[in-house]
């Protein structure tokens, strides 16, 4: 025969704020009988109880059915009842089961694997995305850029000739002149390469331009744009937990940057295409020399750390690609190059490019 | 203390020594293991644990907070905060990102009107939802706060409050920003009048006019600062002109490094000092609005003076800087302690009349508020 236990306790019933003091009676069954000194009675199923930390004196018990209910024992709970009472959560169900060090290590491992996947998967996934998909995506994201590109019949013809020489297969690449006064050129999603007007004005010759355009086409052809898009998307999803401001990182697409390795690949592509088109890489080398002078001589290690290879290193690579004694042909005639330089000025209805 | 009734008196010299209705009994030593394990788990889960971390932190802070003779209890869970976060992600963040992307695409295509519309509509929605979020965060916190087994809440879902928030805020700024105190006080009254604890509704009838003096101080201080700064710059420029006369004087293209440093320091001081002048206003704001709140026969008071807020602010800055940033894990603790220790209540609570709240509770937490990173109170 089971002995009946009586344990002193106080409780709140969850219906009013009155504090009940009395005895908890247990006869070994599935329920507790709460008998208050003022005569009130309440029956609670043990299975219905959950442990909550109250902070002050050890813990107390709430009910699954009613989180207003609180039962705190003020006397000693007999061993056999204590074993039937639920225990509490500390960090959360899964973590408590494993223990903090193990759980932390496990989560860290999973996170590291996820980050590694997001960083590396685009490298092989990017080239496997069909070029037509990328083009559609690019069109959806930025469209045809409206009137922001500079067009004159002469410039269009000259540009078409240059691109045809540099990339005869040309499956997705579109090259345009953007009305932006910056010395730069960019590859955008969808195989869109933009030469900024500022670059055209600073370039000394069509040969200089050819190397830079071939470099950007290289980013498109080597699928760096798609890779960077995928990487950025993956990271923003993964790190969305830390920073709920997802939007801002998505905007980063416009200012996408590539890894050093990708830049080298694009340079290599550029040299290969220049060679195939019989255009001298010396012009591109001169352009990098100009960049080097502009940015000043920074120590070598900066180039190693920064994502872009140092202009000096790139200049040398292009310089070394010049085959001695070979007769190169100019990338464009002087008239054609001038047409490119005048494209923005002479285009009657071009708009300012305010996006960048 | 009598189990049935609590009494406190406001202007009674005899009871000046009496204990405040609110008390905080936590220690940072107790809190540190919670804060640091939370930080660890947040890092290794790439942020997902932060919902559970918040629940753990609150469970601790609430359990160390005494109201009259019994501690508060936090009954919210990490899971419901997590679900709130997911709801916001699906219902708001993703549509917001999609719309802004489409808007960019439209603008790039030259469809400026549609693009701008698609850009403005989510911004307006954001404005509206910020009001709703603030309302629902208070409702959520009251609904998860137990005292003697009784909780609070609201029967209002906050959607109407969102509109009030929009038009009152706009009106406040339209009058050259002079209506801001009116908007803040009026919105505070409106939020809290919809809230209840147990069977009792909060009342709140604060008036904005006592705030205007301090607000005007804040309002005009930038003009004063600009005047002072302009005078100083003029003096410096004059000084240069005198000193280096003949050598070309002050060259704006290549300003001397000392001048640049002076401008940076001036700008920093400008924002820093402006921040503290805002605190002068905000301290009064908080005293006024809390001082007009009541729940049944209980009246509330918040007794932090401006210097207390400044001490809190400087303490925060010092804590974060001296610990090289890691001290930020204690900021929530510090702010809660500040809030509780300065909170006072006077009057009576009849615990037999304080019956369970009949308000509905949402199954998810304060997702919106979390997404906008706002405080509730």
From TrEMBL, chain A:
Entry GO MF terms: metal ion binding; metalloendopeptidase activity
GO terms (BP aspect): proteolysis involved in protein catabolic process
Record-stated family: Belongs to the peptidase M48 family.
Cofactor(s) needed by this chain: Zn(2+)
Coiled-coil parts of chain: none
Keywords: Hydrolase, Membrane, Metal-binding, Metalloprotease, Protease, Transmembrane, Transmembrane helix, Zinc
One of the Pfam families matching this protein, by short name: Peptidase_M48
InterPro entries: Mito/Outer_Membr_Metalloprot, Peptidase_M48
Domain (Peptidase M48): residue spans on this chain: 162-320
GO cellular component terms, A-Z: membrane
Record keyword Hydrolase present: yes
Gene3D superfamilies: Metalloproteases ('zincins'), catalytic domain
PANTHER family xref list: METALLOENDOPEPTIDASE OMA1, METALLOENDOPEPTIDASE OMA1, MITOCHONDRIAL
Protein name per Swiss-Prot or TrEMBL: Metalloendopeptidase
Transmembrane segments: 103-125
Cofactor note: Binds 1 zinc ion per subunit.
Highest taxon of source: Bacteria
Automatic annotation (TrEMBL), chain B:
Name assigned to this protein: Membrane protein
Organism for this UniProt entry: Croceicoccus pelagius
Keyword Protein biosynthesis: no
Transmembrane regions: 31-53, 74-98, 110-131, 216-244, 256-281, 309-333
Keywords: Membrane, Transmembrane, Transmembrane helix
Top-rank taxon, per record: Bacteria
């Amino acid at each position: 025969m089971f002995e009946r236990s009586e344990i002193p306790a106080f409780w709140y019933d969850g219906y009013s704020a009155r504090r009940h003091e009395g005895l908890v009676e247990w006869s070994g069954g599935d329920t507790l009988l709460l008998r208050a000194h003022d005569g009130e009675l309440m029956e609670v199923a043990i299975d219905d109880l959950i442990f909550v930390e109250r902070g002050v004196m050890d813990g107390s018990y709430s009910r699954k059915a009613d989180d207003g209910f609180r039962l705190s024992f003020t006397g000693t709970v007999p061993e056999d009842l204590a074993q039937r009472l639920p225990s509490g959560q500390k960090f959360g169900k899964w973590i408590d089961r494993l223990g903090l060090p193990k759980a932390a290590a496990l989560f860290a491992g999973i996170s590291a694997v996820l980050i590694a996947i997001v960083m590396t998967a685009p490298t092989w996934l990017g080239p496997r995305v069909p070029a037509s998909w990328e083009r559609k995506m690019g069109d959806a994201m930025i469209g045809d850029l409206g009137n922001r590109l500079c067009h004159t019949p002469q410039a269009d013809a000259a540009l078409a000739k240059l691109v045809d020489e540099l990339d005869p297969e040309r499956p997705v690449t579109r090259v345009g002149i953007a009305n932006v006064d910056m010395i730069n050129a960019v590859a955008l999603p969808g195989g869109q390469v933009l030469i900024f007007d500022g670059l055209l004005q600073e370039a000394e010759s069509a040969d200089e331009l050819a190397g830079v355009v071939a470099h950007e086409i290289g980013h498109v052809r080597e699928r760096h744009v798609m890779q960077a898009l995928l990487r950025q998307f993956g990271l923003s999803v993964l790190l969305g937990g830390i920073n709920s401001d997802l939007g801002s990182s998505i905007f980063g697409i416009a200012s996408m940057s590539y890894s050093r390795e990708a830049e080298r690949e694009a340079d290599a592509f550029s040299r290969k295409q220049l060679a195939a088109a019989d255009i001298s890489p010396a012009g591109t080398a001169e352009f990098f020399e100009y960049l080097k002078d502009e940015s000043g001589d920074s120590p070598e290690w900066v180039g190693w750390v920064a994502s872009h290879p140092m202009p000096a290193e790139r200049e040398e690579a292009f310089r070394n690609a010049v085959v001695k004694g070979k007769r190169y042909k100019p990338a464009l005639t002087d008239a054609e190059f001038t047409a490119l330089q005048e494209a923005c000025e002479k285009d009657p209805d071009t708009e300012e490019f305010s996006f960048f | 203390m009598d189990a049935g009734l609590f009494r406190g008196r406001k202007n009674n010299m005899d009871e000046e020594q009496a204990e405040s209705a609110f008390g905080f009994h936590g220690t940072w030593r107790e809190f540190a293991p919670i804060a640091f394990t939370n930080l660890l788990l947040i890092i290794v889960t790439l942020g997902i644990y932060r919902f559970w971390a918040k629940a753990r932190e609150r469970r601790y802070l609430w359990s160390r907070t005494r109201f009259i003779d019994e501690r508060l209890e936090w009954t919210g869970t990490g899971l419901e905060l997590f679900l709130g976060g997911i709801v916001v992600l699906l219902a708001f963040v993703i549509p917001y990102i999609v719309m802004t992307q489409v808007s960019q695409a439209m603008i790039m295509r030259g469809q400026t009107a549609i693009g701008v519309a698609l850009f403005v509509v989510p911004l307006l929605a954001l404005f509206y939802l910020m009001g709703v979020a603030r309302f629902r965060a208070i409702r959520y916190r009251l609904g998860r706060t137990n005292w003697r087994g009784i909780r609070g809440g609201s029967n209002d879902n906050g959607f109407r409050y969102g509109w009030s928030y929009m038009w009152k805020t706009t009106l406040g700024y339209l009058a050259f920003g002079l209506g801001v105190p009116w908007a803040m006080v009026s919105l505070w009254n409106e939020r809290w009048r919809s809230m209840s604890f147990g069977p009792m509704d909060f009342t709140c009838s604060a008036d904005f006019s006592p705030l205007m003096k301090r607000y005007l101080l804040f309002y005009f201080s930038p003009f004063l600062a600009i005047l002072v700064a302009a005078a100083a710059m003029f003096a410096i420029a004059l000084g240069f002109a005198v000193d280096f006369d003949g050598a070309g004087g002050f060259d704006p293209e290549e300003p001397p490094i000392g001048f640049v440093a002076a401008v940076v320091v001036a700008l920093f001081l400008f924002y820093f000092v402006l921040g503290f002048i805002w605190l002068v206003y905000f301290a009064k704001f908080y005293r006024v609005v809390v001082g007009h709140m009541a729940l049944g026969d209980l009246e509330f008071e918040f007794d932090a003076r401006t210097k207390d807020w400044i001490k809190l602010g400087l303490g925060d800055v010092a804590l974060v800087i001296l610990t090289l940033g890691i001290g930020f894990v204690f900021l929530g603790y510090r702010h809660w302690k500040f809030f509780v220790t300065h909170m006072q209540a006077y009057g009576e609570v009849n615990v037999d009349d304080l019956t369970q709240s009949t308000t509905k509770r949402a199954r998810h937490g304060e997702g919106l508020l979390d997404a906008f990173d706002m405080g509730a109170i």
